[in-house]
Design brief:
- The chain is mostly helical.
- The chain contains twelve helices and two strands; from the N terminus they run ααβαβααααααααα.
Length: 232
Amino acid sequence: MAPTDLSRLQLPRACHEALAEQRAERIESHTIPVATAWWNTELAAAGLPGAPIASSGVAQLSRGDLFTDAAALDADSDDELLRFLWRVLAWGSGMRVRLNRKRIRAVADSPSSAVVALRQAVKSAGEDPARAYEALRPRDRNAIAYLGPAFSTKLLYFAGRGAVDHPCAILDSRVTATLRDICKWDSLADNAWPTSTYVRYCTLLDRWAHEESRRLGRRIGVDEIERWLFEP
């Protein structure tokens, strides 16, 4: 199938309506219940840096929490990078822990290479979505086993500290389904997106965000559109 001409795609009316809500409510306050006890137990058993992900009394994480983490992150610290990864994975997984034990094991098997990939991704995310994506998906393969595009792009997104002009957005199966079925990006595959697809996605959301910024008279972030695509 020939690549869809994304310049012709228009943002659906339902998204226009969602964007009328304030950014703080839709983005910073987007909160997910997390399996804190499971994460703390598994990371302690693996003997990995970055644990615990939170105190035992913390049962949820918000996007705002992860923006705060990123703002305080010392990307030269292996321990801080891994803790950031664990908390992003906990938020992205919610109460589902199906593949996370394998992700933890993959990092435990080669912590130095995992940290190198994470550091390059975090440092590139604000300037170059292609380079950041490729740090975690070199040659269309996972740099860290079981850390595929859906979770890699969450890390790239949260590395932006919540900045409204951050160029990297989350891309997962639910976002993809909306783009394909509602927005008519007909050529978009279900998963395993190459770097070129991720860049096209970020570019599309950036265009839509600038169009909506002009319409609404306030700066719209690409994440505000991603939030609707995830849950239209």
